[in-house]
Amino acid sequence: MCHLDYCNLFLYGITDDLLQRLQSVRNAAARLVSGTRRRVHITPVLQWLHWLPVRQRVEFNLTLLVYKAIHALHRRTSQRLYSWSQQPDVVISALQTLPR
């Protein structure tokens, strides 16, 4: 499964036809892993394996990347402000320049 997830952020915005092909590969992998027959509906199998559909997986990874980027930026800003705490005038000017 890691090969299907590798760089899947680049899949954001691709055509529905290509997403459907990837979903078919993922469904086949789910059937192989779970030993489920082809006639059995795949949604419960994907839920049992805790696998998101391809489109949702791509959107989840993109959202997670944005979340991590925002919070890493926030952490760095907080660390800089903390290191400046010995100089109150620098802290005040830094706080005035932060976006609200």
Task: Outline the structure in words.
- The protein is mainly α and 100 residues long.
- The chain has one domain.
- Helix content is 71%, strand content 0%.
- It has five helices and no strands.
- It has helices at 2-5, 16-34, 42-49, 54-83, 88-97.
- The longest helix is centred in the last third of the chain and has 30 residues, at 54-83.
- It starts with a helix and ends with a helix.
- The mean pLDDT is 79.
Number of helices: 5
Low-pLDDT parts are none
How many angstroms does the end-to-end distance come to?
Answer: 41 Å
How many domains comprise the coordinates?
Answer: 1
Most strands sheet:
none
Total number of strands: 0
Q: Given the C-alpha coordinates, what overall shape results?
A: elongated
User: What Rg do the Cα atoms give?
Assistant: 22 Å
Structural class: mainly alpha
Helix proportion: over 70%
Order of helices and strands: HHHHH
Strand content: under 5%
Overall mean confidence score, pLDDT: 79
List keywords for this structure.
100 residues; mainly alpha; 5 helices; 71% helix; elongated
In short:
The chain is mainly alpha-helical and 100 residues long. The chain is 71% helix and 0% strand.
Describe the protein's topology.
Layout: H1 2-5, H2 16-34, H3 42-49, H4 54-83, H5 88-97
